[in-house]
Amino acid sequence: MLRGLVTQQGQARRYEARLLRAGNPALWTLLTVGRTLGPITRLPRLGWVVTDPVISRRILNDPSFSMVGEGGVGDLWGQLFGAEFASFFSGARHAELRSLARDMFTEDSARQLVDRVQGPHHARLRARLAAGEVVDLAAVVRVTSAYTVADLLGVAVADDDAALALFASAERLAALALGTQASTALAPEVIAKAGGLVDAITGDVERAYRSGGPDTLLGRCRDLDLGLDLAKGLTTLLVIAGTETGASSLTRTVALLHDTGQQHRLLADPELTGNAVREGLRVTTPAPVIGRHIARDTEVAGRMLRRDGRVMMLTYVADNKAGPFDVTRAYVPDTRQLWFGAGRHLCLGAAVARVQLTRLLETLTADGRPWQVVSRVPARRVLVPTYESLRLRTVAG
Ligand code: HEM
Hints:
The chain has helices at 2-23, 25-34, 53-60, 73-81, 83-86, 91-101, 107-130, 137-153, 160-175, 188-201, 205-211, 217-223, 228-259, 263-268, 273-284, 315-320, 350-365; strands spanning 40-43, 47-50, 65-66, 135-136, 290-294, 298-300, 303-305, 310-313, 371-378, 387-394. It is an alpha+beta fold. One of its GO terms (molecular function) is monooxygenase activity.
């Protein structure tokens, strides 16, 4: 029995490892090395690397470490949308933007959003599985993630093909950031390629900016008089932030429940759904690395981090220190919810991500039948490791 459980955990780990390596080999190497490092280490070329959850949170809560400047993701956005857009990532403008949208991201709003936008898709998924169909869950969640973010923004997505196209443009745009581990400076040809993808993502923004109501993010951008260009930047940011990470957590959690055999515990006790959601997010940590620019000399855990350097929090390594996927694991206080970051930039869509994973698991377990993974293909060369396809069906229990 114990041997069987250990083998299932080993199998689940191998599938996850394959997924990470296929998505981004350099990231995979960094995370593998990271597992052997101490809590905070300085590496040649890369700068400071942190693998400890408490130290990671300490840095993410400290304004001496910035998203803007070499090493921070704001640096990438500044190169695409200009210095004014980069200013959204820090200080008063950042706080102003977050408060613009706060009420749209509460637990209640997230529940309403997910039930309204994703509910019909979940009902269809349940019916297809009940009819014995093999369903590609990766395709389903690409569609639901894209519709959800489009709804928040107020941009129109005509049909499922358009939703898939939106997701694909976001995935390709994010993939342009592959290889920015050593430097966040983008080559001119990368910036040109990004321009085409931004156009594809923001095709409906002008209409939505001019006519969107106050219940849409773009309508609120207009009321703040942000201007069309900055609104396009924010749209691109939200589409990137809200689609791939969510989709990755959805398919990988369902695969983990299958591979570890723990779907049977969940089927037997639906009260474990909250734990399964938290464990899925912890073990998959879809944003596996968070980078920051060091804006001023700061001592952290006895080490002096010098101004203008960079620091990478290997959140995937930090989150996984608590152990393998386990639906009976209690909340881990050291980790908290580091998979959503921490501090000023804590994921705005955290409630949406949690609710959509909850609803998906409720859908899969509703008929009390376990699922079987028929085939799987990891996505290649993507910023967020994920399944390109995860085909499953439900079977008699
Ligand atoms: C499982 C799914 C998700 C994960 C793991 C995740 C993870 C993260 C992380 C780690 C950050 C902080 C990045 C940093 O500090 O550099 C972040 C920020 C953000 N996320 Fe998420 N995210 C998820 C889903 C979503 C969704 C569904 C949305 C929107 C609908 C969203 C919107 C955002 C936004 C707007 C930010 C920027 C917040 C700021 O800078 O103030 N995320 N996310």
